[in-house]
Amino acid sequence: MTETLVQEPGTEPVGPSRPAGEPLLVVEDLTKHFPVRSGMFGKTGLVRAVDGVSFSVRAGETLGLVGESGCGKTTTGRMLVRLLDSTSGKITFEGKDITHAKGGGLRQLRQDMQIIFQDPYASLNPRHTVGRIVAMPLQVNGINPPGGVKKRVQELLELVGLNPEHYNRYPHEFSGGQRQRIGVARALALRPKIIVADEPVSALDVSIQAQVINLLRELQRELDLAFVFIAHDLAVVRHFCQRIGVMYLGKMVEIGDRETIYERPAHPYTRALLSAVPDVTKMGASGRIRLEGDVPTPLNPPSGCRFRTRCWKAQEVCASEEPPLTVKSNGTVAACHFPEDGAIK
Amino acid sequence: MRKTDSTPELPATTTDGMGGTVALEVNSPVDAPVGEKAKAFVGRSPGQLAWLRLKRDRTAKVSAITLLVLVVIALLSPVIEKLRGIAPTQPFTDKLNDYAMPLGYAGGMNGTHWLGLEPGNGRDILMQLVYGMRTSLLIAFAAAIVASAIGVLIGIVAGYARGWLDTAINWVIDLTLAFPFLIFALAIIPIVEDNFYGERDAIPASFRVILIIATFALFSWTYTARLVRGQVIALREREFVEAARAAGANTGHILFRQLLPNIWAPILVTLSLNVPAFITTEAALAFVNIGVIEPTPDLGRMIFNSIQYVASDPWYTLWPGLTIFILVLAFNLLGDSLRDALDPKSTR
């Protein structure tokens, strides 16, 4: 399954500066199960937050992860940067298995892989100055850059479009957009190769969203960063990501390059998701696919295809057999027994 | 989404007409004085903002000044003794009448003995009061600081460790809270003293003071520990802590650099509210005869002694009572103001 993903067709570089070659990050069959129990001796259950997700990211590439809330995208992101330990599966970074990296290996890894958080109001320590916040990754890793920590921090602040003179200010003195820039500067402090951006703009104003997204784009071009961009806003993802993975209930249902996903998706869920994006050019609700019911609980996911309970194409085989991720006729990799074909209306 | 602009947000400064730099989009605190504009680039920490708010609070000002005066008086009690030439334990029996009541009006108040004399043994009430305040404040402050230190340490450990350690600590806290304090103190203080001193030995006053401090600390760390544990649990899931972990920070850095600066405020507030509570409890101990021993002056024991004279000489009861009242009120008001200043969003 992984082989098909790595050699996925139609994902040749479309971005400006993308060195071809080995993927930077390979994720294979990653799972995260959270045990839940009611009371001290109550029944135990298992939330299958992420259940067998595989994908790969090349250097300098952006992969978008989209899906409804609760589909496991954030959990996946946290496992990538090792804030959560995976239940099973394998994460390979630059050819090394990092799934269970510890001590020095983990420390080295954390310098190459950073995370940007969703809430700019919670992600900055209110009692620290901006300078201290941005310098924190350097200090905890004992790095003394040439010219001193302060100079490096001011360079970083400038890089993200903040006034380096604001070194001594506190987070409460900044707006949401500026705070998110501080978060970006902190993530860049260690010169990472890949950044996991966990809904970096969801908490921001629409006008500020555009600024932050453009900043991330410029940084990506300048510093040749790879991104795993987690979002639920499909418009933002389309603007920012070269490849997109669609998740549903802990599973990857479709993954492919941006144009194909947005124009000719194979999975019914992707179509339903895209039809929910408001579009001023198409008035009315003609193309809207309305899904019935709620997302099933990850405590007890449906058998076979997890989307079958809400899918208008579901048949018996969907309940008995889990569809594998295979290359579909449109060029994406999707998990569906009855893939859609042709462009979106 | 269209690309709305290609330039990132302006580097957020421009020069204003007055030759200073002005930051754009900076939420300067509402209470910033206008004169602060010139040095706009020096950010104010949340602590500095709290200090600004506290300084504008008139209740805080009055109670802080009251406390400062009382604390200075208590600390300078040996100097006052020298200046007045009256020792706190000096008996002026010649100024008592045949019924051992002070001569003169209003409990024997006059130019020499400003607050009068104690009936019975004829000691100067002012000197007793000044030294008694010193004893009370020493016990209250020492107990509050020890209790907070224990509470912070145990609370941080419980909040961060979770699991069985947290459960065990919580169990101990519940157990400690379930003990009736006064009854337990009544039991523990004589037992411990019996352990160290025989029946015939005189128990040194300092030993009793230390014992009282230890008993207070032993029973009061639980509140701080609960509070700190809750704060740590709330903060440890915050994203700035995760960011530190993602950058490779160790537990020590997370606990003491990231978390502790954020829980100073509630710790300070409980500390300031613990002090008056200890002052009153310490006074109450005198009533069950486990307070500070004679001849060390003590406010609580003064009230206890004065009760038998309350009908004939109410002034003797008034002075220590008033002193405790002012001390406790001022501490409580200051503690409340401190909480308002540190956490302006909290409502009373």
TrEMBL record, chain A:
Report the superkingdom from the record.
Bacteria
Region: Disordered, residue numbers? 1-21
| Organism whose genome encodes this protein | Asanoa iriomotensis
Gene Ontology MF: a single term = ATP binding
Does Heme count among this protein's keywords? Answer: no
Protein name according to UniProt:
Dipeptide/oligopeptide/nickel ABC transporter ATP-binding protein
Pfam families named among the record's database cross-references: ABC_tran, oligo_HPY
Please indicate if the UniProt record lists Cytoplasm as a keyword: no
Q: Provide the family line.
A: Belongs to the ABC transporter superfamily.
Alphabetically sorted, this entry's keywords are: ATP-binding, Nucleotide-binding, Transport
What is the residue range of the signal peptide feature?
Answer: none
Using the record's annotation, list all stretches that form the ABC transporter domain. 25-274
From TrEMBL, chain B:
**Residue ranges of every copy of the ABC transmembrane type-1 domain listed in the record:** 133-335
**Coiled-coil regions listed:** none
Q: Entry's InterPro entries?
A: BP-dependent_transpt_permease, MetI-like, MetI-like_sf, OppC_N
Q: Does the keyword 4Fe-4S apply?
A: no
Its keywords, alphabetically, are:
Cell membrane, Membrane, Transmembrane, Transmembrane helix, Transport
Which residue ranges run through the membrane? 62-80, 137-161, 168-189, 209-228, 263-292, 316-335
User: What compartments host this protein?
Assistant: Cell membrane
Annotated region Disordered: the residues are 1-23
Pfam hit, one? BPD_transp_1
* Origin: domain of life: Bacteria
- What is the membrane topology here? Multi-pass membrane protein
- Alphabetized Gene3D superfamilies for the sequence: MetI-like
Entry similarity comment: Belongs to the binding-protein-dependent transport system permease family.
Protein name in UniProt:
Peptide ABC transporter permease
Q: Which organism is it from?
A: Asanoa iriomotensis
